[in-house]
Amino acid sequence: MRLSELLINIDGVNWQPRSSDPEITSIHYRSQEVTPGGLFVAIAGHQADGHDYIEDAFSRGAAAVIAQKPTGSNGLTIQVEDSRLALADLAARFYGWPSKNLKIIGITGTNGKTTTAYLVERMRASAGLNAGVIGT
Question: Has this prediction a pTM greater than 0.85?
Answer without folding.
Answer: no
